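Extended Data, panel c. Modelled sequence:
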Amino acid sequence: MPSCEELILLGRITSTHGVRGQVKMLPYSGESDGVRAAGALYLEDPAGQWVGYAVAAVSGQGKKTLVRFRQMDTIEQVQPLVGREVYALRAELPPLGEDEYYWQDLLGMRVVTDRGELLGTITDIFSTGSNDVYTVQGGGREYLIPAITDVVVGVDMEHRVMTISPLEGLLDL
């Protein structure tokens, strides 16, 4: 089984679809490309073990993605998967574009302002539909930083530092 470092979080299974073993998945990136590229998707079972499920078919349905796994063709087989997060092997995913990052690669990254002030570290990321938002914890405060080019001016993956240029009032909230 793959290690945690080899797996990339893609989304979450939100419900079953029909009675023939399909599931609806909410891809965190908003796109199904990663799901389509993966030969298998990995979910953590209740005992904490990674289980790989071979992908038989993937199709889009609005903001959600429909997935059918091989060897699973009834609603009863896929029902226990609902609510679980879905991962894929990093090596199977399409290359990232410039200024694109996997969420898990940003978690724990230090965030500094363009004036050199350390705000804290990224502890969570969520999507608003129009853009992602980084939750930054530091100095007893929490900051919500929008992932937009006007704010995020640099990401140094090697040194694990994100530099932001805060909009007026952003750090006062």
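Residues 103-172 form a domain with the SH3 type barrels. fold (CATH 2.30.30.240). This feature is highlighted in the accompanying rendering.
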